[in-house]
UniProtKB/TrEMBL annotation:
Belongs to the metallo-dependent hydrolases superfamily. Hydantoinase/dihydropyrimidinase family. One of its GO terms (biological process) is pyrimidine nucleotide biosynthetic process. Keywords: Hydrolase, Pyrimidine biosynthesis. This is D-hydantoinase. The lineage of its organism: Archaea, Methanobacteriati, Methanobacteriota, Stenosarchaea group, Halobacteria.
């Protein structure tokens, strides 16, 4: 045993790893986990934290958030990372966009992907938690494909393409991008909804004056999501590329992806917290606030998310966090509302409540779905684990405390929560990012700027 002292010991808690739970203490020194074991076998610490009756888990790794991407969110790195820290998320991955010729382009159309990545790194100076970006390919240019290799040099090893919206691309271009992604051993990540189906239904409902939020999910149906997932996963299989399906919302999509996984193709997918908690009755209850694309679906789809999280077709739970004000949602017709909702601060307690407390998932499953799998899927070996030598990103969590979610406590710029008023069991008490306590009992206790950019590896999905 090392005779030296360490900075912090989190003692008497239940340590949750991806494979089990142990009653042990966690020793943190500097930015890393020094040891996990019986307290008496560990070095003396300057600070001792009593975690009795608490879980001690790796911090949540949220691989799908929108931060610093106006108009797709109003959250800055500072506001989003306050929400993250309060919610036990120690690393998030947002999006770095190239420019395109369109209304919602963040940058001038000529802006390259690498310029977009560097702009995000600069905007991140005030981040409190660690962060990285996926690159977004929003135009069908050879020059865009040529940006993939220099993007890897920037530490960005995954690339997003959309089948929908004005920055969506054709299957021909996706196929070209997938072949290059395969050559580079990078990861393709996909928003899959058939745009022609969704656009036609949207136009029809507008013409018919069906502006109540209950019509919204019918404008972007589950089969449109499954159709596009099928097409893009097939191209990824043909290219031999790693495919990661974003925000899987329904049984039909999950079944498509499961089918491609069965032959050993490199196909993975996430769902998001809201698809595991709500069905489409939420629109009658909460209006446009939970308008998210793809939409929240039917009760059977909620059950399907849990079946496929158990079965492995879905291996990650993310938030798709978008910060918006209530006023951008409280409009007469759903098509004039913003799409997206904030969840960084609530995802861990809400998913713990639903998956563990209500549906019997284990603590290690919670850690795999929210920490370990996203870290491994996206090339962050220092994250998502409490192995000695890795980053000391740690959450102390009380699995028994029940509280009511209140948007007045938002760290996000958003002034509402789709979980407002919901009682959840499980509360984040402390969040450490690389050894530093950043949130303590609902308060931010570190200065902005502690967070740093995570240079990601090319992930090995064979492991
Ligand atoms: Zn998103």
């Amino acid at each position: 045993m090392s005779p030296e002292t360490v900075d912090t010991i989190i003692a008497d808690g239940t340590v949750v790893t991806p494979t089990g739970t142990i009653d042990a203490a966690v020793a943190i020194d500097g930015e890393t986990i020094a040891a996990v074991g019986a307290e008496e076998s560990l070095p003396v610490a300057d600070q001792r934290i009593d975690a009795s009756d608490r879980l001690v888990m790796p911090g949540v790794i949220d691989p799908h958030v929108h931060v610093g991407e106006d108009p797709f969110t109003i959250d800055t790195y500072q506001t989003a990372s306050e929400a993250a820290a309060l919610g036990g998320t120690t690393t998030f991955v947002n999006f770095a966009w190239e420019g395109w010729d369109g209304e919602t382009s963040i940058y001038e159309p000529e802006t390259t992907l690498v310029e977009g990545i560097r702009a995000q790194k600069e905007a991140a100076a005030d981040a409190l938690v660690d962060h990285s970006s996926h690159g977004v390919l929003a135009t069908e240019r050879d020059a865009t494909i040529e940006q993939l290799e220099p993007a890897l040099e920037e530490g960005v090893t995954s690339f997003k393409l959309f089948t929908a919206y004005e920055h969506g691309v054709s299957y021909g271009f996706m196929n070209q991008a997938l072949r290059r992604i395969a050559e580079l051993d990078a990861v393709g990540i996909f928003h899959t909804e058939d745009a022609t189906v969704c656009d036609q239904l949207t136009e029809q409902f507008r013409a018919e004056g069906k502006g109540d939020p209950e019509w919204y999910p019918r404008s972007r149906p589950d089969y449109a999501e499954a159709m596009a997932a099928d097409d893009v996963a097939r191209m990824a299989q043909e290219a031999g590329a790693k495919y990661y399906g974003l925000h899987t919302s329904c049984r039909k999509s999950a079944e498509v992806l499961e089918r491609y996984q069965d032959d050993g193709s490199q196909i993975r997918a996430e769902t998001c917290t809201h698809y595991t908690v709500y069905d489409d009755s939420v629109f009658a209850e909460r209006g446009n606030l939970p308008m998210i694309a793809p939409p929240i679906r039917k009760p059977d789809d909620v059950d399907a998310m849990f079946e496929h999280l158990r079965g492995g077709a879905l291996s990650v739970v993310s938030t798709d966090h978008c910060g918006y004000k209530r006023e951008s949602k409280e409009v007469e017709n759903w098509w004039d509302s913003t799409f997206g909702a904030n969840a960084l601060q609530t995802s861990l307690p809400v998913f713990h409540d639903e998956a563990v407390h209500e549906r019997g998932f284990s603590y290690p499953a919670l850690v795999r779905l929210m920490s370990t799998n996203p870290a491994r899927t996206f090339g962050m070996p220092e994250k998502g684990t409490l192995e000695p030598g890795t980053d000391a990103d740690v959450v102390v969590f009380d699995p028994a405390e029940t509280y009511t979610i209140d948007a007045d406590e938002n760290g996000s710029e958003a002034d509402f929560s789709i979980y407002e008023g919901r009682d959840v069991t499980g509360r984040v008490e402390q969040t450490f990012v690389r050894g530093e306590l950043v949130a303590d009992d609902g308060e931010i206790v570190a200065d902005p700027g502690h967070g740093s950019f995570v240079e990601r590896d090319l992930p090995d999905w064979e492991q």
